[in-house]
Amino acid sequence: MNKKKILILGASGFVGNAIYKELCSYFDTYGTYFTNRSFSSNQQFFRYDLQEDDVFQILEKVHPDVIISSLRGDFSAQIQAHQHIMEYLMRSKAKLYFISSANVFDAYSKFPSYEYDKTLSESVYGRLKIKIENMMMRMPSEKTGILRIPMVFGNASPRIREIKTSLEQHEPIEVFPNLIINVTNDDKLTQQIHYLINRNKTGIYHLGSSDLIQHEEFIKEVIKRMGNYHPVFKRVYTTNEDRYLAALPKYNKLPKNLLISCQEVIDHHIPV
Ligand SMILES: NC(=O)c1ccc[n+]([C@@H]2O[C@H](COP(=O)([O-])OP(=O)(O)OC[C@H]3O[C@@H](n4cnc5c(N)ncnc54)[C@H](OP(=O)(O)O)[C@@H]3O)[C@@H](O)[C@H]2O)c1
């Protein structure tokens, strides 16, 4: 059997590792880690430091058919690494899926955003994502997939762990009452990515829930699911009007069984 070779950059992280676990039984899957030494004895993993190492070396070693970029780290080093990945794409048969973010639209606040809306961000994080997306858009279209994702939840997610710690220590939990978002969880997100790889899909995908919810309401519902807590909230108002941070699909839709709603993301959290 001729299995596809997959390389996940940032496979020791929350999102990257969830993708690794979803794919490793079906594909010849490799990953990178940086500080998380628990992967150091795993033959499928390579140590990679954005600021010190050239990503070429790993690409030449693995010869992946599919590269998934799920990294954090120094912004200019991320840009340089992705420039090198683009060069590699041009001289190989590989494709790149880039984990981008709904933050590429964080300057547009009055409506949710769709795949081909113009990106504009007020944050350095959003601008970094836009810069890498723009590099990808200059590549032949069959080479790249831009996956814009909202906040990712799940029982093991850093966001939920942070909430648990605040609950246990009776610290206030920040909520944004006039922020309207969509959300997702690690399980659905990784199934969606698996589908895109199987079908050789490229282009822009908005991989969040199909519906919207207020940030405050969502966090309150998740906490209710987590158990009998008495949370203290700190309400943060960034504007007077409702503001949207949501990337919804319109053109590149996934099959029904791969869609998720905010309620399903809430229900996914088991009591702790
Ligand atoms: N989590 C979300 O809700 C969310 C939402 C939208 C978009 N995203 C995007 O998804 C991607 C992954 O996010 P995440 O939440 O999974 O982050 P994460 O858990 O912090 O994982 C980041 C990954 O990058 C690696 N890394 C960090 N600094 C590095 C460096 N200098 N050189 C090489 N590798 C380095 C980490 O390695 P070590 O852990 O081994 O050090 C880890 O594998 C990011 O691009 C993020 O923008 C995430």
Automatic annotation (TrEMBL):
Pathway assignment: Carbohydrate biosynthesis; dTDP-L-rhamnose biosynthesis
Keyword NADP belongs to the record: yes
Keywords from the UniProt entry: NADP, Oxidoreductase
InterPro entries with a match to the protein in the record: dTDP_dehydrorham_reduct, NAD(P)-bd_dom_sf, RmlD-like-bd
Stretches assigned to the RmlD-like substrate binding domain: 5-246
Keyword Transferase: no
Coiled coil ranges: none
Any one of the GO CC terms: methionine adenosyltransferase complex
EC numbers, comma separated: 1.1.1.133
One Pfam family per UniProt: RmlD_sub_bind
GO MF annotations in UniProt: dTDP-4-dehydrorhamnose reductase activity; methionine adenosyltransferase regulator activity
Listed GO biological process terms: dTDP-rhamnose biosynthetic process; S-adenosylmethionine biosynthetic process
Catalytic activity: dTDP-beta-L-rhamnose + NADP(+) = dTDP-4-dehydro-beta-L-rhamnose + NADPH + H(+)
Family, per entry: Belongs to the dTDP-4-dehydrorhamnose reductase family.
Chain's role: Catalyzes the reduction of dTDP-6-deoxy-L-lyxo-4-hexulose to yield dTDP-L-rhamnose.
Protein name: dTDP-4-dehydrorhamnose reductase
